Predict the structure.
Amino acid sequence: MTEPPVAGSLLSYLAAPDLEFFLRRGTRRKLGAGKALMYEGDPTDHVLVLLSGWVRAYTNARNGQVVLLALRGPGDVIGELAALRDAPRSTTVETLQQTEFVQFTHDTFIACLHDRPAISVAMVRQLAGRLLDSEAARVNAATMDVASRVAALLVRLADMHGTKTPEGILVRMPLTQQDIADSIGGSRRAVARALQTFRERKLLVTGRKQFVLRQPDVLRQLAGTVPNGA
């Protein structure tokens, strides 16, 4: 691994022997920022495992709106659903920064799941986590205003990818206001207002490719969530 795997990713669930077995069966590659890794509607011919960098997965709605479905980082698998279903890609995935990954052919990836039960179990655990995230996002979209949805997204990203520092919980991620708007189904203007309010209340500090939750408990209250494990 080039960077530690994010919590909830497939690689985060693998012990060292299974991790080595898995990664040795693919081909390492690198791409710069703003490059497409796969396109919605394409046939399934490869699966990717991220080693470093972040990517975004999105789809284009019928009205032309971009819907951001997920942000994926080190340890995450990309393209596995299409491979498991033998179906065309359901999303477009592009890099947000320089990204290193391991590329597997469809057949090699499926063979790894058959050969190592631990990899199959890790895959199920990753898929279960993503399902719970999707369900939470649907509930939030139906019941929360934009500011609450923004707070919920920030808290979720901090729980999954944050690092505790003296200033708060640091999340290193190249996330734009438009990315947040696409993710929660709001307008960029409304997201900008919410972020400005959080900054003025000293709940949040934003910077280039990172942000810090200064008072995560307050943001949890705004989002109507509780800490993990509660």
Observations:
- The radius of gyration is 18 Å.
- The longest helix spans residues 117-143.
